Amino acid sequence: MEVPSAAKLLNGEFAVWIAIGFVVLSYLVLTVDKLRATSTSKDDTQVGLKLVLFGLLFGGVLFASGGAIKLVAYVLSPFKGGAGPIKELLPNLLVGAAVVFGVSMLLLPRTNTATAKQPERFFLGGITLAFAVAAMGALDQVLDGLINDKGWGSTSHALAELAVTAAIGLIALTRFGSISGWTMPPPRPAAPQMPPQQGGGYPPQGGGYPPQGGGYPPQGGGYPPQGGGGYPPQGGGGYPPQGGGYPPQGGGGYPPR
Asked: What is the residue range of 94's domain?
């Protein structure tokens, strides 16, 4: 079963019916919601007006997206057909852009949409859903063209649909989440780090313990000193001195005799 083109779903007759369906369904939901005691739109006297304006804005976005898809496809073709494709996409693009500008910049600011945002939430939710589904269909066509080798002409048009629908859907979703008060997930805690070692490892590198380069006791002379005589001194006389007794030999006794 072939997936319908996103450009066909979001343009022309389909765009008109999508916009009308959005207004009717949203109005029914808000009418039921007003029956609740805690309804946020219970005292909003401009609900119907804002839904109609957002319905017009919905249709304008759909028409403008069709023109944008044709423009991107024309660039990816690349520029195949001369000025013909440009003439074909201009009506969609100009009508959609004019409606979007007029409603968003001239009409909606005259309502209480800045404080009563429920109709805008419905609009953004509808735009997000419509363009997200269209982007999925476009992605399916891109993959089908690449896997089954259907040629660059078909694949480039599906790629243009994917780029435009995904971009509009992402913008609408971001705005929808912002006015709905969504929050970003908290950042992950940083992993604990070991304190840096100053000057090398433990034990000190570059010398052992005891110090390298000389033993303990010191090398080059033991204890008693090596090479210079023992204790008592070697070669220089013992204690008592060698060469004479105590009392001194050969020099007289103590006391004198």
From this structure: 6-35+43-178
